[in-house]
Specification:
0% strand, elongated, 82% helix
Length: 110
Amino acid sequence: MKASKTTCLGYRVLAATAAALVFTVAVNLPVYALGDLNGVIDSIRNWVAGLLAALATLFLTIGGVRYLTAGGNQRNAEEGKEAIKSALIGYALAALSPLFVDILKRVLGA
């Protein structure tokens, strides 16, 4: 079965985005050690929030493209809507990450 041009393009965009994300993480690893637990937790929060926002943007883009190119195909339109819903959940988690970190700090007593 031959894949459509849109599907191949989607996979290429997904692969390029994943490669860019891995490259960004590999290049930006800090070479210095953080001094205290609060610094480590804040650093992790920033990385997680950034990763969630990046993935949510990717899902929003893919979902929007799927929805716009559905062309009357109900299944593609539903998959696009689901990807957009997943993106909104990702944005909400990224926005709430400071709250989760505050809870973690209180549990650890830091």
